[in-house]
Design a protein that fits this description.
35% of the residues lie in helices and 26% in strands. With 158 residues, the chain is α+β, with helices and mostly antiparallel strands. The strands form two sheets. It has a six-stranded antiparallel β-sheet with strand order 1-4-8-7-6-5, covered by helices on one side. A two-stranded antiparallel sheet has the order 2-3. β2 (63-66) and β3 (69-71) form a beta hairpin. The N and C termini lie far apart (43 Å).
Length: 158
Amino acid sequence: MRSTRLLAVGLALVIVASGCASDPSLKGAAAELQKDMQRLEADDVFKSPSKKLRILQRPDKDIPCDKEKFKRVLRATADYERKGSDVDGHLDLAQGLMENTLVQVLGYKLDFDFSQTDAEDGRFIYGTKGDSELRVTVYVAPDSPTWRLHAMTACLSR
């Protein structure tokens, strides 16, 4: 009986210790967000001058967001030239291209919102990335700039 109790206490301590060791850090999440920015800049689609990729905020500064916690933010815009007057078709192509980039190039998992299908006033794309505590939101607009990307880490300890 006593050995069972000691085993249970020991197992609980191992689980708690392993949970604490795997807490995400700002350093790791910020490094991943920096890599995302570099991948976006190097991507064949977005390095084309016609896409007019602009990094508005680089993820290189800690932003206070909670007691002794910080986050990093990446903001960017890019354009997808509209060919014709079909707004829905333009948004479909632009949304599909960005979703593909987020998944295939940057490694995000997307949350699909089917209520936005065929919306002509713009669409939102939401995604998260693994254990690195990253979230991304992209507004796909019918006017220029087509893509307005906002990615950030969660509030994390340094």
